[in-house]
Design brief:
- The complex is a heterodimer of chains A (98) and B (233).
- In chain A, helix 1 packs across helix 2.
- The two termini of chain A are 13 Å apart.
- The mean pLDDT of chain A is 81.
- The longest helix of chain A has 18 residues.
- Chain A has two helices and four strands.
- Chain A is of the alpha+beta class.
- In chain A, strands 2-3-1-4 form a four-stranded antiparallel β-sheet.
- By secondary structure, chain B is of the alpha+beta class.
- Chain B has a single domain, classed as Alpha-Beta Plaits, CATH 3.30.70.120.
- Chain B is built from five helices and 14 strands.
- A nine-stranded antiparallel β-sheet of chain B has the order 13-8-12-9-3-4-2-5-14. A three-stranded mixed β-sheet of chain B has the order 1-7-6, with no helix packed on it. Chain B has a two-stranded antiparallel sheet with strand order 10-11.
- Chain B is globular.
- Chain B starts with a strand and ends in a 14-residue tail after the last strand.
- Classes of the chains: A alpha+beta (98), B alpha+beta (233).
- At the A-B interface, strand 1, helix 1, strand 2, strand 3 and helix 2 of A face helix 1, strand 3, strand 6, strand 8 and strand 9 of B.
Chain lengths: 98, 233
Amino acid sequence: MNYFMNIVVVPLGYADKVITAANEVGATGATILRARGADHSAKEGLFSIKIEPEEEIVLIIATKEVTDTICNKIHEEFEKNSKRGGSIYILPVQDLEE
Amino acid sequence: MASHILPNGISYSLLTIIVNRGKGSKILGFAREIGARDASCFFGKGTINNNVLKMIELNEVAKEIILIVVPGESETKILEQLKEKFHFDRPNQGIAFTMPLAGILKIKQDTSIKWKNSSLSNQWDYTALFLVVDKGKGESVIQISQEAGYYGGTIIKARGSASNLNIVLNMIVEPEKEAVLMLMKSKSAHQLAMLLREELHLEQPNTGILVKLGVNKTIGLFQDDGKDGEAEQ
């Protein structure tokens, strides 16, 4: 089976939303990492202090079909009731042991 | 639910950089300079393979891990720039590697995933092993791999959730987890994966998960002949 690792990067506090959405459509689990980003759209602040927004990274491993539905579901969920967006990167998985 | 396909010729890679703590912001600044699409940085801890240091429990180094999304065609150029700027050509300065992305989606901008058109090759020189285990087991993963002659890896603190969500008072309860990232030659990755599978009983449910990811290019890896793995960690 062809698996993919989904790397979902969202602002801090939105990880729960991602996981609830993903679980509804058949994800079997998720891992959350706390991170900080480099938002180049944010202006460089006073005294050239760079703004590094806090982020959460959610890792979900799923098959291609499930990946498709998860991504659509997350997109829908964020479209409906969220002000902020995020991005999803999909990495191909070579091999998997569970 | 038709998937959009990335325009021909354009592919993205995920550039992963592991450096000592404190350098992360500099690299995020570099990501900003090159106009990267997205970059994020998180903390981890690495291990030094040294018996003396191990005895006095000083074999841990604080690390930072940076993920940057870069266009596939400028991947080599960016790695060269990194090498020059952050001296990745010397040992113990950090490592960087790229992994090709199969797809990309901007939440609230794209409506469906842009999949990469061409199929991905299966010929990888290096493999990144990514494990998610319960908290506290991360060190034993490193220990197992070091005892078997491989180099260490980087431990990242994480939270996890299983398929049946534990919802208490409208809050999702997530057990603490540890993620371990190890980089090694593809041929030894399989052996180590089998070893870890046996040692950690990964075939049983709720023990952990092990994923092998193909790595495109690496810089900053220095290794003894015959031995595979991360010299830097």
